[in-house]
Design a protein that fits this description.
By secondary structure, the chain is an all-alpha fold. Helix content is 56%, strand content 0%. The relative contact order is 0.06.
Length: 86
Amino acid sequence: MNDTVQSRVSPELKRDAERVFRAMGLKTSDAIRLFLQQSVNVGGLPFRPSAARPNGDTVAAMNETKSGENLSEYGGFDELRRDLDV
């Protein structure tokens, strides 16, 4: 006999997670079972929780790129290396 586990998540989170699981050949229920089993195996969360957010410098650079600011073009890798003084 099996127990049922229920959880409320946003439709977007569910859709995005299902896309990831499907790419690995898993159903959501399989992924949840794996998570629970691995939590038991390691005696805690099976990953280190973290926020995957870029820092301020990275966000600023991304915004510059989107707006076309401070972009450089190079004819090849050697030219880039010379510009960087590497």
